[in-house]
Design brief:
It contains 15 helices and no strands. By secondary structure, it is mainly α. The protein has one domain (about 1-255): ADP-ribosylglycohydrolase fold. Helix 1 runs antiparallel to helix 13 and helix 8 runs antiparallel to helix 9 (about 145-155). The model is unreliable at about 255-265 (pLDDT under 50).
C-alpha cells in the first residue's frame, strides 16, 4: 500500500506535463499526494474498521476536497444521495491496492475489489480494472512469478499484456480509463527489476502518471517487498498525519507478514 501511495506522490508532478523517459528526479520538490492516495487510504480504513467502502471514501474525500478528483466523483461526493455513475475511469483501480494486500483468498479479493469500485464505478470495465489490479497484487504477494501473473490476468480479464513499454510509449498519452491505464500499469510492473524501476517505467509512459505509478507501485511492492526506507520516510513526510496513521495501521496489520522471496522469481 505504501508503494501505491509513493507512486502517486512521485507521479503527481508529471500528470499534466508528461515525460517519456525513466531518467527523472524520483521525488521532485513539487510532488504531493493526490486523490489517488486519499482514496487508497480510505479503502484501507474501510478494511481496518470493517465499514462500507463508500462511507470511508466519502468521509476522507470530503475531508480533502482539493485532492484533484474528477468531475463525476466530485458530483458524487457533494450529493446528498450519492449513487453509482457507471464510470469506467481508472479511479477504481488506483484506490484498490489495500484489497489485494488484505484478503487471502482469490474469490475474496475479486469480490471485495468489486465492492470497492461499484458504489461509483459501476460500469463493467470500472469493476474489471479494480479486480485486475487487486488480483495482480494478491498473486504477487502469495508468490506468483511474473509469468504466472501475466497469464492469470490475461485469462481472467482478457487484457493485452504482450505489448512492451517500447511499443506503447511513443503513441501513448493521457488517458483516464481503466481500459487504457490498467494494462499499461501492469506491463510497467512486468518489465521492472525493482520497485523503483517499476514506478519509473510507469511514469515514463507519459500518461496519467500519478495513477499509472500508483497502480504499478502497489503491484511492485507486493512482488519485490517493502519499499526502501527512504521512500517510506518521504511518504510519511508528505502525507497528512491522519492519512499516515491509517496507512501505518494497515501496514502493521497486513504487510508485516512479508512477501515470498522474490530473488528467483521472473
Amino acid at each position: 500500500m505504501i508503494g501505491a501511495i509513493a507512486g502517486d506522490i512521485i507521479g503527481s508532478v508529471y500528470e499534466f506535463t508528461q515525460i517519456k523517459t525513466k531518467v527523472f528526479t524520483l521525488f521532485h520538490p513539487a510532488c504531493t499526494f493526490t486523490d489517488d492516495s486519499v482514496l487508497t487510504v480510505a479503502v484501507a480504513q474501510a478494511i481496518l474498521e470493517e465499514r462500507p467502502y463508500s462511507e470511508t471514501v466519502r468521509e476522507l474525500g470530503l475531508r480533502y476536497p482539493g485532492a484533484g478528483y474528477g468531475c463525476m466523483f466530485m458530483h458524487w461526493l457533494d450529493s446528498r444521495e450519492p449513487r453509482p455513475y457507471n464510470s469506467f475511469g481508472n479511479g477504481s483501480a488506483m484506490r484498490v491496492s489495500p484489497v489485494g494486500f488484505a484478503f487471502e483468498r482469490r474469490e475474496d479479493v475479486l469480490r471485495e475489489a468489486a465492492r470497492s469500485a461499484e458504489f461509483t464505478h459501476s460500469h463493467p470495465e470500472g469493476i474489471k480494472g479494480a479486480q485486475a489490479t487487486a488480483l495482480a497484487i494478491h498473486l504477487a504477494r502469495v508468490g506468483a512469478t511474473k509469468g504466472d501473473i501475466r497469464r492469470e490476468i490475461v485469462r481472467e480479464f482478457g487484457y493485452d499484456l504482450e505489448r512492451t513499454l517500447e511499443e506503447i510509449r511513443p503513441g501513448y498519452g493521457f488517458n483516464e480509463t481503466c481500459q487504457r491505464t490498467v494494462p499499461e500499469a501492469i506491463i510497467a510492473f512486468l518489465e521492472s527489476e525493482t520497485w523503483e524501476d517499476a514506478v519509473r517505467n510507469a511514469v515514463s509512459l507519459g500518461g496519467d502518471s500519478d495513477t499509472l505509478a500508483c497502480i504499478t507501485g502497489g503491484i511492485a511492492e507486493a512482488f519485490f517487498g517493502a519499499v526502501p526506507g527512504c521512500v517510506e520516510a518521504k511518504v510519511r513526510k508528505v502525507l497528512p498525519a491522519d492519512l499516515w496513521s491509517i496507512t501505518e495501521q494497515f501496514s502493521r496489520r497486513y504487510l508485516s507478514k512479508g512477501p515470498t522471496s522474490r530473488s528467483t522469481r521472473t
